[in-house]
Amino acid sequence: MSREERNKRLKAIKESLDTGWEVTGVSVRDFISWFGAERRGNMVSYVIRKVLKEFELETFPDFDTVPLDAKISFKLITSPDQDNDQSEETPDETSESFDDINPEATASDGDIETAQALLVTGALHEPAFRLSRLVSAHNKPVCVKPDSSLKEAVTLMLRHDFSQLPVMTNERDVKGIVSWESIGTALFFESEKSPMYVRECMVSHNEMPAASSIFIAIPHIVQHSYILVRDLDKTISGIITTADLSLQFKQLSEPFLLLAEIENHVRALIDGKFTQHELAQFKAPGDDERLIETVADLTFGEYIRIFENPISWAKTKLQIDRATFISELEKIRVIRNDVMHFDPDGMTPEKHELLTKFVHFIHAIKKLHSSP
C-alpha cells in the first residue's frame, strides 16, 4: 500500500469516527502492512504512532500489546495532547514510513530556545513484554459450570488434551479450576463416595491481568501449570499454560541458537588460516582502536569482508562458489542484525527456514572441507 493510499484510509477512518460511524476492525498484521512493515519493532511502532497522532487516532487495544493476528479497531484520541505550535502540514501530506523516518526534531534556524526545548523520542511505547502479547492470552478457554457433571469435564479434558479447565458461570465469573490433580485428590482422599459434579472437585483458581509482565507471571505459571488471563473488560480472555510458555520461549530463543551455531561454523572456516596482523586488516573502517587477537574478535560483517577478498578466499581452500556463499552470508547478516535488536514479534517462518537451511548448508561445507 502506498503512503497516499494509507493516508486516504486513515483520513476516511477519522471522518467516519467524527460523524459517529463505526469503523471495521483489522488485524495488527494488516494494519502495520499499511506502513510497509511485516513485524513490529522500535522504529516501526514509533512511525505508526506518529502518523496516527497526526490523524488524531489511536488503536484499541493498542496495536503493540496484542498478537499480530489479533483484531484492533480505531478511536479518536481522547487525551488533550495538542500543541499550539503544531506544524502546518496536514495529515494528507504525511509521508513517513518505517524505513525512512528521522525521529530527531529540529527547530527553525536561529530559534535556539525552541531547539533546546524539543526532546527526541523514539523508544518503544510499551517496553515490557506483557501477557497480552501471547496468542493464548486471547483464546477464550474451554470451561465448565460448577453443576456440570464430572464426566463432562473429564471428556473435555481428554478431548482437548488439557490438564485443567476453568469452572465459570459466565465469561467474568470464575468459581475455580478443575484438574486431573484436583479430581484425583477428591476421588482418593476427600470423598466417601465418588464425586459426580465439578463443584465437588474444583479448587481455587489463579489469574493475572493481561497487562502483567510475562516475567512476573512465569513463576506463577510454573507453580500452578497455568494462569488465567483477565482482560481490561474484566472477562477471562485466555489461559496460559507451561506448554504455551515452552512454545513461546522456543520461538524467541531458537533464532539466537541457530545464529550462534552459524557464527561458530563460519569462524571455524577462517580459524588457523590467517595471522593476527592479517585478521586486523579486515576491521571495519574507523574502528582502529579495537584489538583483534583471534578470529573471535571479528564481527559477522568482517567475516564477510574476508571471504570477499580473493586472496583471503584462496587461503580458506573452500571448494564452493564464492559469490553464492557471500550472498547467503549477507542474508544471514541482515537476519542477525534484526534478531540482535530483539523483535518482540519473533521471526517470520521464511527467515527461520533460511537459518535452518543455512545450518544444514554449512554442515555440508564442513564435511566437504574436512574430507580428504
UniProtKB/TrEMBL annotation:
Q: Please list the residue ranges annotated as the CBS domain.
A: 137-194
InterPro entries per UniProt: CBS_dom (IPR000644), CBS_dom_sf (IPR046342)
Q: Does the keyword Transport apply?
A: no
Where composition is biased (Acidic residues), the residues are 82-102
**SUPFAM superfamilies with a match to the protein in the record:** CBS-domain pair
Chain positions covered by the region annotation Disordered: 77-106
Show the coiled coil region(s): none
Name under which the protein is recorded: CBS domain-containing protein
| Biological classification of the source | Bacteria, Pseudomonadati, Pseudomonadota, Gammaproteobacteria, Pseudomonadales
